[in-house]
Structure formats: structure tokens, C-alpha cells
Known about the structure:
heterotrimer, B: 460 residues, 18 helices, globular, C: 80 residues, mainly alpha, Non-ribosomal Peptide Synthetase Peptidyl Carrier Protein, Chain A, 4 helices, 59% helix, 0% strand
Amino acid sequence: MAISEARPWRTFLLGLLLFWAVDTAIFGSGWYGPHQSPILKTGDFWFTMTDVQQRPADPARDVLVLGHSRMGEGFSFAQVQAEHLGGGLHFVSAIMPGSDFKWWYFQLRALDPAGNRYRAVVIPVNGYLARPDASSMKVAADKGVGPALRPFLALRDWPAFIASFDTPGERASALAVLLFPGHSLGVDAVSWLRSPGGRRAEIASRLALGLKARHEYQGYGAEDLSGLRFDYASCAVSAWPAQFDLFRQKDSQKYLCRPADPAGETRMAEAYNRYWLQRIADLYRGTHTRVIVVPVPAYGVAMAGVDPIAGAPDIRTGLADAPQSPLLFLPEAPFAALARRANFYDLVHMNRRGRTLFTRALAGAVAQALPGTTPPPPAAPPRPAP
Amino acid sequence: MGFTDFGFWLALLPVVALFHALPGRWRPAWLLAASLAYFTIESGAYVLLLLASVGWVWAAGHRIARAETDRARLIWLWAGLVPAAGVLVLFKLGDAMPGIAAPLGISYYTFRLIAYLVEVYWDERQLAPGWLDFAAYVSFGPHMVSGPIQRPGDFLPQLAALRHRLDPARIEGGLQMLLNGLMLKLIIGDRLAPLVNMVDGAPAAYARPAVWLAAVAHLPYLYADFAGYTLIALGLGALFGIAGPPNFNAPFAATNVAEYWRRWHMSLTGWLTDYVFMPLRMATRHWGRAGLVLSIFVNMVLVGLWHRISGTYLVFGLVQGAYVAVYTLWLAPRGGPARGTGQPLVALAKAVCVFVLMDAALIVWFAPALPSAATEARMVLGLLPPGPRLFEELPEGADIKAACIALVLAIYIGAGAPGMAAIRARLGRHVPGWAWVALKLLLISLLGQDNGGAFIYGHF
Amino acid sequence: MPRDDIAARLTDLLRDFFRQPALALAEETTAADVPGWDSLAHIDLMVTIEKAFAIRLSTREVRGMKNIGALLDILAQKTA
Lengths: 386, 460, 80
């Protein structure tokens, strides 16, 4: 290989430019989107977002539900239909496992740029008292956020997206994802090349499902946390329920123990929640769209790593009563009551029983919160799910 | 921020651009400033420790050069060596204590400090021409993290020459090394990392094929990671006009253990040979075989222990000492010019033997503690019942097929990539340089694994 | 001992030591130019030279010498 002897920099920059052009043409132009694996996280997000984008808007009745896997496991769209919950509202899912505020904010920027497509938008918080779980939530949610959002970010959103990361290193990485989107799709592209037929089949079945891929998601089974033997003080687990495989056990460790600096974590969580709630509220200030905040039952048992410390601040303070605020905070009590071992499959996700109760509570509360819609008739005949 | 972070390269861009734009006489100063800035970003206030070490060794060097008697020379040599080496040993001992992070590259800058002192002691003409040049030598950013260890007599004249001229051919070579190093590290090394880490984490839990494959992969994995790092470091150095010493020369082509150590981490083994082994050997030259064996063992135990003062690295060093001693005493051709290795098949068999011996020793090297090394060794030998797990935990993109391809490539490259030069020469005539750059960048982008940016030798 | 005599004796000694009867030495010759002159052989060679010339060499002298010329300088000085 001979880089030109006289002008190595020119040769290098020319190569870099060519690389960028090829990378952008394939992965940054939108062409690659529909060829992604709908099973991998980025592809799953792409298909879901595209489905929601292409759905004809019904601003009078559509309620966009955003959220992480807790919402995904907790809220059953099939049950809403079957039990005629939500008083005539249409719930539309853009839920993404492992997502958080940053995802939801930019999802809204992409799905509803003019702020006129939805009657309401639902976003979850882990209760209204700030919990010392901010770092673990953020670390988990920042994983993969850039590659997933890249196809849906307009150029004018790039600076805001990059600025949403804290350290210079993270910001540089975010810029890299935006500039060179191929890197994060490399695994996807190689697996496509290894099995083109398999990829075609995956995509075909996903396209056939459309929004049903989210709406008919069955969720976890009936297993609960009754078998969990757990000592709050020493944060040691002496018995895991059978549904906890090694991966789930390992993943649960981070919730068990008090973090090194719970007060600092709490402050960080408060600032983090309030910052993003404010920004999401700003998207809909002065519009007819309500932003409904639901305090999901976030944890099935009391754990030192996540329970609010004494004197923990309320993240709602000053947000809801601001003039023209689109924020509606649902009352916490009915949801907090669901945070019981019998309703949870693992430490953070609801089981079948929890899902049934949570879906009724949320759909009912949303319907009640939106003026002009009525709660479902109490004696609505149950219809079998399709 | 390390060599695999986009932020690092982004920040590097203006640093390199300014380096090239500046008048020649400012280049060493800019290089020193950038190196110290990088060190401070990574290690904070430890920069004061670095500067203190630089100042002390600089002063000691002058004392040695000006000394009137051999005795005074020797006293100032030790006066310079003991604090510099002492700080390193303290941090190596402190490794065992949680919460103490060692300064960036302390092993490597200490090796440079010692090299300088000893070189000046041997020949006072090696004295650095100025404090700035000396400080730039010790703190040279591109080689800071994990070497290679350049000698002052190699570095300082190049630095002085930068004041007059920057060689475009060096830049060209540097850019090539950067790309090749990133490919070796990100595409091959990081594709082997999940396999090795998975099995080493719980060797008893895995079935034989997984245990064996991970055991074989140790050496190629370490090679791809460390040789990849070294290429990047050398390439970076070349962007600043400094040609560094090679660290790897086709180690898997070595046909005996002594040759292996002349081809593996060469800048360290060369350093140890010159500053530890040779002086020891001189001191013990009248003791016959005992002196030779003692020198070999001291040398090889240091090869192990400098990583970290721990049981595993001690055992690793002793095993290597035994390898080299047995070879030197009984197997090496005596006197006269080294004979050729003979038949290609014989050479291949010898190379395979060396590979297996080194791979075996790495079981201890990679283990967190001696008991887990013993467990893994017994798993490999089939002395413990196999576990249930196989390859199902490997992530997408680093699955068993991909890992096997990476393994074969790492061994091929580590054996000197026979035949590659001819292919490259033939293709080079038809494919322009910028197309190669674009292709390599595309490969790095698409096939590079995200392994958190960690280099194995970043911990030492 | 005159330097030329030392050079002649040294050449004989090296030819014998490295078993290369045709070995030719110049002032600029370094270890790298002589097959088999590695770091281990270097020490054995120094021991042989010490015996042959009945002198003692220090580590500093052995390591400081860059080529045959430097070695000759040291030998000339020590046997003066």
C-alpha cells in the first residue's frame, strides 16, 4: 500500500472523505433502515418508530405511550382493547426497552414535530420521590441511544442531542455516532450478509405485524417474587425465585445495595427528572396536547439501592402549576399500591397479575385526566382478545 | 480517553495540526505541553510526581556526567535510580490496595528514566541537550500509556531534528501504522476478548471445547491487543515526527523460547537485557553456569513481576525462567554462528512447540489468582469434569465462528503474515493510497468491536 | 602493546570464538555485523578476552563500547 509519499495528509483526508461518503450513503441516508434486523435493539426501534410515524393521526383520541421496559411489561394494549378501557382513547405504543427521558424527548421531536398529533403523551417516572438510582438508570439508557435515534434526528437536533451527554468523551462518542452511523450497524450488516434469507424472513414477519408487534406483546408470565429471600440491611439474597436465571440475578445486583453516596444520587435523580420533564413539557407548552406523567410501580420490593432516602425531594415541585404547563401528574397512590411481590416478575418488571391491574389503573386514570373523555362504563362486557 | 475513543482523535486533530504548523523550534515545547496535558487529563495531580521525577533524574544525570571519580558516578547513579524505581515499586505494591490508582504509564516512564540514567552512567555523551528535550522524552504522550520503551539515544536526536524538518515519509508510515493497529486491536483482538474473558471468569463452568479454545486464544488475543496498541502508539509518535522502537517481530515465528523473547515486547526485553541481565551477567561471569542461571531467573522473574507484584506473575516469571534456562543450557547451539533452523517442517514444529509453551504459561498470566489458574489448568488437562456451558453467551458479532476467524488471523499476523508483502505489493500498484485508507476505515468502522476501549496493558 | 598487535590478536580470538576463520574486523564493526554475537555470547566473549589479555573489564566499559574500535581503545589502554 502506498499513501502518496509527498502528501500523506492529503491522501489520508481523501480516504477519510471517501469513507465518510460511503458510510453515509449506506447507513446515514435512510436506505439501510428497512433492511435492519427487527430483532436487534436498533432495528426494533426503527420499525416501531416507522410504524407510529406512518399511522394516520387522530389528534382528538390518540394517546402516545412512551416508556421503558417497565411500561412495556406493565401496560397491555391488548387488554385495553379487550376490556374497552380508556373511554374511547386510542393508545399507541412507542415503548422501547432500556429507554429513558432522552429517548422520549427525541422520539417526540421525530414523531410529533409540530406538537399537534396527539391528544396526550404518557411518560413514566419511577415514583414522585427522587430515588438514589439515577446513575444506574442513565448508564443503562445511554447504551444504544445514539444508534437508535440517529435515523430520526433532524440535523437541527444534533447539537441538542450531543449536549444531552455529560462528559466531553461521551459527547464526542455521540458526535461519532451521528457522523459515522455505520459503526453501530456493523454487527447488523454482517449478520445480514451471513444470512440474507433469514433477514428477509425476519423483516417480512415484522412488517406483517406492524404496530401489533408492540400492541399484542404478551409480557411476562404469572411467576412472582414470593420466593425471594432478601435481607434489606445486608442487601444479600439468600434465595432467588426460579425465574431468575444467572443473567437476571446479575442484572438485579445494582438495585440491592445502598449506593456509596445516596444523597448525591438522589440530588442527581431529582435534577435529572426535573430537567427532562421540563424539556418535554416545553415541547407541548401552549398546545392542546397533555403530557401525562405516570408514577409506575418501579420496584417490586423495598431495596436499599432504590428506596427514597429520608427527606427525598418531590420531582413535581413547581412543574405542574407553572403557567401553560402541559404536564399532568397522575395521583401516585393507586400505582404505589401495586408495588408488591405478588405483582412483580423480577425486581423491576410486573408479572401477569401486575400488568392486569396496572393497565386498568393507567387507562382509567388517563381517561379521567383528559377532559372531554369519559371513564369506561363499569359494566362493559369483556371481549376475548384476538 | 484512550486510543479507541473518538474523542481522543477529535482532540488530537488540532494538536497535530498545530504541531505541523508551528515553526520548527517550537515543536519540542508544543510536544511537551501536549504530552503533559494528556497526562494531566488522565492522572490529574500525579503530573507533579512526574515532573519531580523528571527534575530529579535530570539533576542526577548531570551529577553523573560531571563526576570526577568512578565512585561519585556510581553514587549519583544510585541516588537517581532509587527514588525513581522506588516510586514504581510502591505503586506496584499499592496495586493490591483498592482505591489507589497508579499514574498513567508509570511503569513506562520509569523505564525511560532508568534507561537515561544508566546510559549517561555508561557514556556521559548521552546527556540530554536540554531540560525541555529530556522532559519531552520522559513524558512523550504517544508512548506514555504502555510504551514502547524508546532509548534516549534513539529519541533525543530525532527530537532535535524536528526543529529543522518533518519527514513526510514518516507521517505516511505513521498513518498506516495507526490504521493497521486499530484493525488489529478492534477487529481481531476485541473479537477474541469475550471468549477469553468468558472462560477465564469461571473456567469450571465450561465444556472442553470452550476451555480449550479460550486457552489457545490467550496468546493470540494478547498479541492482537498489545501489538495493536503498539502500532497505534508508534503511528501516533510518527505523526509527531518520532520513529519509535518496534515491540513485536513475528513472535509466533520464533523457533525457540529465547528467540521468542527477542520478538515479543521487544522494547521491554531489550531494556531488561541491557539494564538488568547484562550487568548481572557481568557481575556473575566467573560463577560459571550458576551465574548464567541466576541471571536468567532474575531477568525472567522481573519480566513477570513488573506487571504487578503478585503470586501469578511470580509464577509466570519462574516458568519463563525455567523455559529460557533449559533452552540456554541444553538446547541452544553452542558457540559459532547460529545455525539455520533446518527443514521448514522442523521449523514449523519448533514454532508450534514455542507457541504451546507460551500459551500454557499465559494461563497463569491471565488468572486473577493462583487457585483459579490451577483450576483452569486442570480443566484444560481434563483433570476436572467439564462444565455445562459452551459458547452461547458470546455476543452477536463475536460469536464462535467470528472468534475462530479472528483467532486464525491473529496467529497468521503474529507469525509475520507470510505472503502478505507480495500481495500488498501487487495490489499496491493498482489501488491508490486513498482507496486503501477508505477501505481500512470502513473495515474498522463496520467490524471493530466495542470493548469499552480497554487495552490489556493499560493496567500495567 | 601496540594497537595493531592487539587488533591482530583480537581478530584471531574472535575467529576462534565465533568459529568463522574468514571473519574480518574493522574499527566500525559492531556485534550486529557478526553472526552469533548476541548478548549471551557477548559476556562469554568478554570473559575470553579478559583471560587472553589478562585484564579486568567493568560493566561500564563493556556496555559503553559501541564497536570494535572502542574495544580496541579499551584494550590498548588496559595493556599499556
